[in-house]
Amino acid sequence: MQNKNFTEIQIDRIIEMAWEDRTPFEAITFQFGISEQETIEIMRREMKPSSFKMWRERVQGRATKHTKLRANGIDRFKCKLQRQITGNKISKR
Known about the structure:
The chain has four helices and no strands. The protein is mainly α. Helices cover 45% and strands 0% of the residues. The mean pLDDT is 76. The radius of gyration is 13 Å and the shape is globular. Helix 1 (8-19) runs antiparallel to helix 2 (25-32) and helix 1 (8-19) packs across helix 3 (36-46). InterPro entries: CHP03643 (IPR019882). This is TIGR03643 family protein.
């Protein structure tokens, strides 16, 4: 992984985006300049092992997490009904 120094707020946002079902990894790459593998490494490092395992099982192969697998016509990163989350604090080990 490249040595990128993210603030705690940026790390929390990366984790939040990775947890969101409708946010593809490409959106994280666009916003933070990190690859899917780097996102996975951040998730592994910042989450409890059981939470990471549950997340990986959930997102692996999920069409909404990969732009190329999405249905045509879906061009947004989140549901238009989803509320804006502010001050989100993700639990860490």
